[in-house]
Amino acid sequence: DRLLENIKPFSDKINTKTHESDATFSADGKTMYFSRTNSKRVKIGEEKVATVKIFKAEFINNEWANVVEMPFSNDLYSTEHPFLTKDGKKLYFASDMPGTLGSMDIYYVDVNSDGTYGLPKNLGDVINTTHREQFPFLTEDATLYFASDGHEGMGGLDIFMSKMYNDVFVKPLNLGQTINSNLDDFGYVLNEKDNKGYLSSNRKGSDNLYSFIRKENERRILVEGDVKDKTTKDLLPGTTVSLYDEDNK
């Protein structure tokens, strides 16, 4: 087993008395975006809450500096779980800002060459549901991985993938029981070069980090479709589907 050693915290310019998480880095390692819980609580409805904001930091003279809040973050709603694409042109994140389909949705903003940002764009109802969509991660071939408890899954947050065709994400697929459990599974990241990755899960009671190795499935059969009642045409969620080959196996 490989062990992670010599773990060091970031400086107090990044780490404060509140929560910091979900760091994502530019390809040259000189720009970082991360989530930070707001230091003040604001009244939303009947309760006071601390929203989560996205910050940017720059690596200058061997230290992280110029920590600034993103212009699309806000005291009244959360923006969290940033992921910067390898070309540095899009920043994906999760938010419950006005205009979501419900709870948390996945958005992106364009990162302009002059350092400004476009307006947040919702990924739409193929990816987002009335429930939680969070923790976006994109591979270089524009495959989106994310956590959701709104798409049909195995229980709690599950990790899904969606491939992009003609700049449009298609219907997400659940990664299945080798990755997902009946509790919360989230925070999927993958190193495409060595097919090794990590995810977070509370399948054993508390949130822990897990590593995995991705292997080519020798017998890969992809079946898509909906199971419906023959008469009423109502969807039948949770149906077990069996697939037989020509030898009836």
List the keywords.
single chain; four-stranded antiparallel beta sheet; 249 residues
Describe it.
The structure is a single chain. The strands form six sheets. Strands 1-2-5-6 form a four-stranded antiparallel beta sheet, with no helix packed on it. Strands 7-8-9-10 form a four-stranded antiparallel beta sheet, with no helix packed on it. With 249 residues, the chain is an all-beta fold. Strand 11 (133-138) and strand 12 form a beta hairpin. Helices cover 0% and strands 39% of the residues. The two termini are 37 Å apart. The chain has strands at 20-25, 31-37, 42-44, 47-49, 52-60, 63-69, 79-84, 90-95, 105-110, 121-122, 133-138, 144-148, 158-162, 164-165, 168-169, 173-174, 185-191, 196-201, 208-213. The chain is built from no helices and 19 strands. 25% of the residues are buried.
Strand order of the largest sheet: 1-2-5-6
Q: Which word captures the global form?
A: globular
Strand pairing plus helix content: what structural class?
mainly beta
- The string of secondary-structure elements, in order, is EEEEEEEEEEEEEEEEEEE
Radius of gyration: 20 Å
Q: Describe the biggest sheet?
A: 4 strands, antiparallel
Uncertain spans: none
Helix content: under 10%
Number of helices: 0
Strand content: 35-45%
What is the count of β-strands? 19
The overall pLDDT average reads 93
How far do the termini sit from each other?
A: 37 Å
